[in-house]
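FAQ: What does a ligand-bound record look like?

Like this one, built around zinc ion:
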Amino acid sequence: MTQSSTQSAQKTAHRLRCIGCDARIAGLDAAEDFRCQACGSLFEVEYPQIFSPDDTAGRPPAGALHAEWKTLWADRRSSHAPLDRSGVWRFRELLPFLADKRHAVTLEEGNTPLYSLPRSARSLGLENLFAKHQGMNPTGSFKDTGMTAALSVALEREFSWVACASTGNTSAAMAAYAARAGMRALVLIPEGKVAWGKLAQSLDYGAITCQLKTDFDGCVAVLAELVRRAPVYLLNSVNPYRLEGQKTPAFEMAEAMDWKVPDHIIVPGGNLANCSALGKGFAELRTLGLIGRVPRISVIQAEGANPLFLSMSQHDGNQIEAVRADTRATAIRIGNPASWQKAVRVLRETGGWCEQVSEQEIALAKAEIGAEGIGCEPASAVTLAGVKKLVSLGRVLPDETVVLILTGHTLKDPEYTIDFHRGSLLTAQETTVMLAAQRSRMEALARAPLVLDPSVEAVMRVLDAEVRQ
Ligand SMILES: Cc1ncc(COP(=O)(O)O)c(C=O)c1O
Ligand SMILES: [Zn+2]
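The answer part, i.e. the structure of the complex:
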């Protein structure tokens, strides 16, 4: 396809809408930093041909028109074509932003498991508690679903370089997809605050990795200036195509539940793109008549990185103040979230809440998810800690179906897990202020590695002691 026919196809299939001033622009006209030049807000991708309310007159209801897609999407799972095997691109009818789908760069992401969490459900008195494990993606986090989408746009637009500021997972995903596409990748990460697994991935996939002596928000500021000066394509989640990929787990969940959505989805909140993307996915399915209602979507933040929680509780979501973020859940150590307005809209439209959880609650919840044989990285565990709060506040009821979005794999941050089991994760002060029940639950889950003499007797003594407990 020639450059000009590529461009005209892109113009007709999708456009970008500014969420601040409602301006519409062609995808190709977005500024390098993906901010609206009139008001500075972010854009979202729109598909007039699929969703325009104007052109439905005289046609059958949308649900009837699009019901056949359900079969098509399911059938693709048994295909051997890489795009069909991707849990993102098998829904490509709802992602028509590439002029030519041969530009799609895929690692067969998505199609992640929806696990039940029977022990956590029982202790919370819930009938149906599930985990949608986005950590089971090719690079171990939910970022892959967004990266396959946005990096494909970069390839189609003939960029050689892509770049991101990251708390670690975006950089791992970007580096991998860039390597697949034969593109160069530039990663800016905060020095000392990125989990080892993620830093190792960025290096392994060949990205130029810069550890800046600042936090995530400082890395974002440097990159925003850099993309104005150099021809690199920005792949942070201000890039609206990232959210197009990240909306697809909503399709997978609806499909897995036979197009009857759960009552409540719980999402960790950092830069707040993921909750926004899932909200967009469910809203699109409802507009098409493929589901009858949308689930509540609630966002959970760490107490030390809680700007959305403060915004909702102090300003009703009408304004946000940046905080100096600090939490051991480094993936969500973000004080100035770019997508906060999109997230507030999702909370309002779905009737969800924003809660905050402590470092102790995160540590305990992560161990509990591990004890289910599933595991996740610390940032993902805020979801279980958060649902405990929502249950105790009566915001989640016993007969409701709840899905926790686990965003990252447990192997992303092994240091955190080992410190927990060795009893060195929390400070003495943090341990002292815990409730006795919480502390004893934590002690029961902690399993420090045992260093023994190399004898059967030594191992037998350990077994005997366990059996006697
Ligand atoms: C594991 C993990 N969970 C949650 C988040 C937060 O997602 P978002 O920034 O879209 O709110 C991130 C972001 O880096 C992450 O890596
Ligand atoms: Zn605007």
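Follow-up question: can I read anything off the structure? Yes, for example: The mean pLDDT is 94.
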